[in-house]
Amino acid sequence: MGDGKFFQTLYNQMYESVTNADMWMNVGMVALKIVAIIVISRIVVSIVQAAVNKVFQHRAGSKIQMDQRRVDTMRVLVNNVVRYTLYFLAILMVLQLLGIDLKPVLVSAGVLGLAVGFGAQSLVRDIITGFFIIFEDQFAVGDVVTINNLTGTVQEIGLRITRVRSWTGEVHIFPNGTITQVTNFSLQNTLAVVDVSVAYEEDLKQVEEVLKEVLQIAKTELTDIVAEPQILGVHALGPSEVTMRVTAECKPNTHHGVNRNLRAMIRTEFTKRGIQIPYPKIVAMQGKGQSQGQA
């Protein structure tokens, strides 16, 4: 009998709860508010992100010019911060509507964050360093850089790690906190320097004229050259050669290819004009007072 009365009482309480119109009205209002918070938060995120994109929109005629790589990086970073911040506030509002006291939650989150901060100092250092790498535009994806004496092309920049691919295919992963020295080869124009050796028997004025003709052709054919190539003159006097130096200003990180092309063009033109490129010679003595030169 006791068990029967207990189940009967429990049934009556559940029936009263289920048929309570005020309770369902409150549940409905809470559900509507939660839906409204979600919808409004998404609308606000879209509006704010559109405003951010408008602010960072590149204008060719603007008086304040910024590198487009830096503009895109900063735009993505600000959009992510805005989205996470607004969604976090929306979650707090939903928890408050569900009757959860936020004070203990925030206090626990603060204590947990403090403990994690002490236990993951290297992670915090990586994130802070990654933020300043992006903010200061030290390098961007696609740049050729030397990081901690390793050279390669940047594949990915994150708040925690940076990936660099060397020209032989290896991928190097650097925690941002360990990056102490960076050399960026993709920000400014580079200089192609070619040393040309000719025999002492050659007429240097004729050699200079030929070099001028070759450099004029190179300026037209090699699109990576951005300024008039220069002949600096005699650079060194060697045991069997005179070394002349020519330079050409190139687009960022294209000087290696320009060097190779210039050498090939100069070598071809020298052959056509009969200008000798020096090579080692040996003088062999044959008897008293006789000698024979051999290559």
From TrEMBL:
Residues 193-277 form the Mechanosensitive ion channel MscS C-terminal domain. The keyword Methyltransferase does not apply. It is found in: Cell membrane. Residues 80-121 form the Mechanosensitive ion channel transmembrane helices 2/3 domain. Signal peptide: none annotated. The chain crosses the membrane at residues 30-56, 77-99, 105-124. It is a multi-pass membrane protein. GO terms for molecular function: mechanosensitive monoatomic ion channel activity. May play a role in resistance to osmotic downshock. This is Small conductance mechanosensitive channel.
